[in-house]
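Progress note, sequence design subtask.
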């Protein structure tokens, strides 16, 4: 697992627990070859953390 000294700015697609998907600005705080641990802010302004597939993340 890679954990950078400073998080990388990303755009991430997240699916909420209610099945709704949204794009959010966030930061990649760790990753493996297939998944990324992101810190993001949802459309309601709440901070969240999630492991997502690497294909759901792009650099800002």
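Output:
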């Amino acid at each position: 697992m890679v954990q950078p000294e400073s998080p990388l700015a990303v755009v991430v697609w997240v699916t909420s627990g209610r099945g709704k998907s949204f794009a959010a600005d966030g930061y990649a705080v760790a990753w493996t070859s297939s998944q990324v641990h992101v810190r993001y802010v949802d459309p309601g302004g709440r901070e969240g953390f999630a492991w997502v597939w690497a294909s759901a993340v792009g650099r800002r």
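DSSP finds no helices and five strands in the chain. Work on this subtask will continue into the next period as scheduled.
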